[in-house]
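We modelled the chain as a single entity of 116 amino acids. Its sequence is:
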Amino acid sequence: MGRESTWCRYDAAARQLTVTLHVQPNARRSAIAGLHGDALKIRIAAPAVDNKANAVLIEFLSESLAVPKSAIVIRRGASGRHKVLEIFGGPELKAKLDALAASRIATHDSRITRGL
């Protein structure tokens, strides 16, 4: 991975990761779908009404990256599919997100009980 990601940047001074996403609501289950142009595509198992998709997006990323929900902020695009998020934490976040994007195995279904 020699080249810099255009969809993901880590600022060491601010201890924050800035991530550009393309979000697809109403998916069967939440999952990382890979790159979509200059953004990471994430499918979300929630409708895009009453901020439900944004809430599930934050929950999904929180669980996938093992950070508190309060560490994730939607900076731009709260009402659209193209979003810019800031995730606060250490430099390991970029490596975790790069690994998830490469493997595309992070999934969860918000409609299924947590015990499954």
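As a brief sanity check on the tokenised model: The domain at 8-107 is CATH 3.30.1200.10 (Conserved Hypothetical Protein Mth637; Chain: A;). DSSP finds two helices and seven strands in the chain.
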